From TrEMBL, chain A:
Part of the ABC transporter FtsEX involved in cellular division. Important for assembly or stability of the septal ring. It is a peripheral membrane protein. It comes from the Bacteria. The keyword Nucleotide-binding applies. Transmembrane segments: none annotated. InterPro entries: AAA+_ATPase (IPR003593), ABC_transporter-like_ATP-bd (IPR003439), ABC_transporter-like_CS (IPR017871), ACT-like_dom_sf (IPR045865), MetN_ABC (IPR041701), MetN_ABC_transporter-like (IPR050086), NIL_domain (IPR018449), P-loop_NTPase (IPR027417). GO terms for molecular function: ATP binding; ATP hydrolysis activity. Keywords: Amino-acid transport, ATP-binding, Cell membrane, Membrane, Nucleotide-binding, Translocase, Transport. Belongs to the ABC transporter superfamily. This is Cell division ATP-binding protein FtsE.
Automatic annotation (TrEMBL), chain B:
PROSITE patterns: ABC_TM1 (PS50928). It is a multi-pass membrane protein. Pfam families: BPD_transp_1. The keyword ATP-binding does not apply. Belongs to the binding-protein-dependent transport system permease family. CysTW subfamily. Its main location: membrane. This is ABC transporter permease. One of its GO terms (biological process) is D-methionine transmembrane transport. The chain crosses the membrane at residues 17-39, 51-76, 82-105, 146-168, 188-211. It comes from Billgrantia kenyensis.
Amino acid sequence: MITLRNVSKTYHLASSRSRLPFVSRSSTPARTIEALKNVDLHVPGGEIHGVIGLSGAGKSTLIRCVNLLERPTSGSVEVDGQELTQLTAAELNQARHRIGMIFQHFNLLTTRNVYDNVALPLELMGMKRSTIRERVLPLLELTGLADKARQYPAQLSGGQKQRVAIARALASEPRVLLCDEATSALDPQTTGSILALLREINHKLGLTILLITHEMEVVKSICHRVSLISDGELVEEAEVGDFFTTPSTRLGREFLNDFLQLEPPKALVERLEEAPGEHTHPVVRLAFSGDAVSTPLISRLARECEVDVSILQAKVESIQERTLGLMIAELLGSPEQTRRAIDYLETHDLHVEVLGHVQRDD
Amino acid sequence: MSSAMIDLIVQATLDTLYMVAVSGVISALLGVPLGVLLYVTRPRQILTHPLLNQVLGMVTNIGRSIPFIILMVAIIPFTRLVVGTSIGTNAAIVPLTIAAIPFVARLVEGALNEIPPGLVEAAQSMGATPHQIITKVLLPEARGGIITGLTITVVTLVSYSAMAGAVGGGGLGDLGIRYGYNRFNPTVMLITVAILVIMVQGFQSLGDYLVRKSDRK
């Protein structure tokens, strides 16, 4: 449904150049900023795809390239089988009717009431008032705003404003919905209700959703797949369950640890050594999902490999339909025993990461 | 006070209202589009055009920097061309309008600048054309600010129109100078000033009321 191929965006900043006449124009050299570097992204129809990254990573630029609010410097943007970068201005406006967008700050018109805000995209398409009415009323129903039709945005709460924005984005019956940090300005509870609404829309209307966010919670609760963006590049893409169990990049692990607040205790980190010694124990981070969650692996490990397990931190999370267990533990035994223990865990579909080694106390 | 004098005052008041009304309406009709053009041709705007923007900006600045009393005299040939005379209320309307257009334009540009850029972005994402963005987003959202600007303009026009009296433009300023100043009649002078004060108060209250009515924030 959405395919970005080799998309790059470069900004040329010449802002510090003097614009006064008779003043030298080369006070500082122009700078270029590569906001996106060779981004490839494919979102199949009906999927909710999240792009997560830190501030300034290029998320906003990326999502704005999908409907060409930002025109990529190079690369191609295909939405619903149509290559957008080659279109004329009029054709692009037509194509944009099939791509809805919602924003962090809602961007509702303050001088229009709820009904008229939702009707705006249909007015732009030149629809008749009666047709507009037939479209708008069910949308107000869907978004739970039926009793707010005559109110103005200033009278609404943040969550209600975002609902209006969602209804407005859906009015032109788009195939794709772009969400630009749609819940970042909302409190956790309201965030939950907006995400539930997006999930419902995805389910009911089969709408493809591309969202950008810096919150793992958003990815966890509604995304099917997730891409991680860093410094203008997509560094990792995975199914959400996999991303939450075994992120493959350091940044991915940082996001996850930050989200789960699963860090080895500070005192231990200070004692961690990279290389194993003769008298060290490995400290491991275990991630297990699926069957492994319900199997008493730790006690079996103790019996079968004759190691003791000291659990430093543990957490069980449910990521959509999957259960995910995470643990940081110290394996106590001889180097031979602990190596066998790690092998044992890996053959039982656990993801094992050795964080380091600590000196034995004995 | 003689009834002839009262007639003169009434006539002068009507003349002033006439000058302010005609120049106000014309300058709004021309100044609002100019202000919109100044705004939308800016860098990173919906109809970016740096050259046009700079030329319009320069013309507007020149218009605003010429003192009204000098402008009035300087454009007398143009005034003759337009209304056939350089004396009287109709002749005063020409410089009043020309002075007010760039004034309105800058105030409108300022009002548009207050609109969060996200609203324009949202309209673009809906496939709005630049024309639709202007008529459905920019102008309605800036309505309060534009009315404020037009109120300031009308009040300024009241005082400018009094200045037009200095060159035989008619109206309250003319009356005040000829009867109040030249013939040293303090009563006429006081009445003239009082009427001008009331007029300005009235326009300001009307403008405030319209802004309140259009403001949904």
